Structure formats: structure tokens, C-alpha cells
Amino acid sequence: MRKLAQSLISPTIAGLLGIIALLAILQLAVSTGVIPKVVVAKPTAMMDSIPELIYKSHIITNFFITFGMTLAAVLIAIVLGVPFGYLMYKNHVVGEAYEGWLAAMFAAPIVLLYPLFLVIMGRTYGCLILMGFLPGMIPIVIQTRQGLLNLNKTLLNVGRSFNVSDRDMFWKIMIPGAAPNVFSGIRLGVMYTLVNIVAIEYLVDFGGLGRIVSDLYFRYEIPAMYAAIGFVILVSVIFYWAFGKMERWLRPA
């Protein structure tokens, strides 16, 4: 019976059931006054506010603005971060020299640098992409190097025994072998990129979803504000799903 239940309930369904249960608990807590309505909106009120968000706040357009800037920042972070991580792996001196600095930068609140970049670049999409790219690249670099350092040496020795070229060694052995670490870094990069972009949108009242959340907050439209935050979460879910698919494609085994 237990095995039958496990076979019928997939991880996706189990996750959705968990979210529904949490929303039901939140609905009950707000309805009964355990959680004040002025602090958290009822899930039903959030859902009711979505049509107004679509037609008056143009939430769909702003969703794609934030999604596009996050995608651009993450892609730049991958294009630059993976090769730099490989360089740190290949060159022991470079790796030892920069790993500590990168770890320190990763722990630092880079979002606080936004006044400097606003002065240099202005309130532009390029500024937001740069502010998202900086914290997003660091975990990709660190995790790429770590993944390559943890590669099974047997795989490398087999590749050398077949006289595999450096290019094939990198793409067919090293990258698939290091993929779990690399994609862990990418997922972290997506999280920090999205957080920074939305935070800057919120602070400077420019861009996509962060600007909408800021506007709704100052107008004290609590249900609509939480609904807009839900769209921010949706951006993250889409990225996690897409990179999960990509990892499984790269490592079918």
C-alpha cells in the first residue's frame, strides 16, 4: 500500500499539495484574525487582485522585463563564470589567489553598490543587468572550480589513454562530470541575480516586478502586492525548472 501511494504521488504533485495545504492554513489564519489582514493578505484576495494587476499595472509586461533582465544577467554570468572557474582549476596560483576574494565578495551585500552604478550608468536596464550579473557570477566560478577539482581521476585517465583532444576532454568528460557542481552554482547565481535585480527595481522605482511591488506597497494595496511577489517567485520557478531540464539533458545518466 505504501509503495502504491509513493508511485501515485510524484514529487511535483507532492510539492503542489504542500503549497495548497500551506495556502489553506494561511487562509484560515488570516480569516480568523491569527494573522492581521493589514500584514498578510488572504490567498483568495491575492487571486482576486490578479485581473486588476494585469489590466492596470501591466504585470505581464513587467514580468517579462524582470525575466529578460535576469536571463541576460545569468547568461553573461555563465559565459564568463564557467571559463574563469576552469582557469582557476587549471592554474593553481590563480585558483588559490582568487578563491578567498570571491568567497568574501559572495558574502558581501553587493546590492549596496547600486548608488555607484546608478551614477555611472544611470537608471537603465543595463545597470540592473550589471547589478544582477555581479553576485550571480561568483557562485558559478566557485562551484565550477570545485566541480572540476572533484572530478573522478579515472575518467580523466581513460580520456588521456584514448588520446582525447583537450576540447573533447573539456566538453565530453570534464563538463558532464562537473555538471552537478556547476548547476548548483548556476542555481545559486539565479537566486542572487533575481534578488538583486528585484531589489534595485524596488529601490529606484525602475524596471519590472520590483517597481510594481514598490508601487503597490506605497499605495497600501496589500493583496495586490503579495500577488505581484507571487510573480517574482514564478520567475525563480521557471529558471530552476529550465536549468534542471538542462542538467538532465547534459547528464542523461
Topology:
Layout: H1 2-8, H2 11-31, H3 43-56, H4 59-90, H5 92-107, H6 114-121, H7 125-149, H8 153-161, H9 166-204, H10 209-218, H11 222-250
Helix pairs in contact: 3-11, 4-5, 4-7, 4-9, 4-11, 5-7, 7-9, 9-10, 9-11, 10-11
Name the descriptors:
MetI-like fold; 2 domains; 253 residues; 11 helices
Give an overview in words.
- With 253 residues, the protein is an all-alpha fold.
- The chain folds into two domains: 2-40; 49-250, MetI-like (MetI-like fold, Orthogonal Bundle), CATH 1.10.3720.
- Helix content is 83%, strand content 0%.
- The protein is built from eleven helices and no strands.
- The chain has helices spanning 2-8, 11-31, 43-56, 59-90, 92-107, 114-121, 125-149, 153-161, 166-204, 209-218, 222-250.
- Helix 4 (59-90) runs antiparallel to helix 5 and helix 7 runs antiparallel to helix 9.
- The protein is globular, with a radius of gyration of 22 Å.
Give the helix tally.
Answer: 11
Topology, number of strands = 0
- Summed over residues and divided by their number, the pLDDT gives a mean of 86
In percent terms, what proportion of residues is strand?
Answer: under 5%
In short:
With 253 residues, this protein is mainly α.
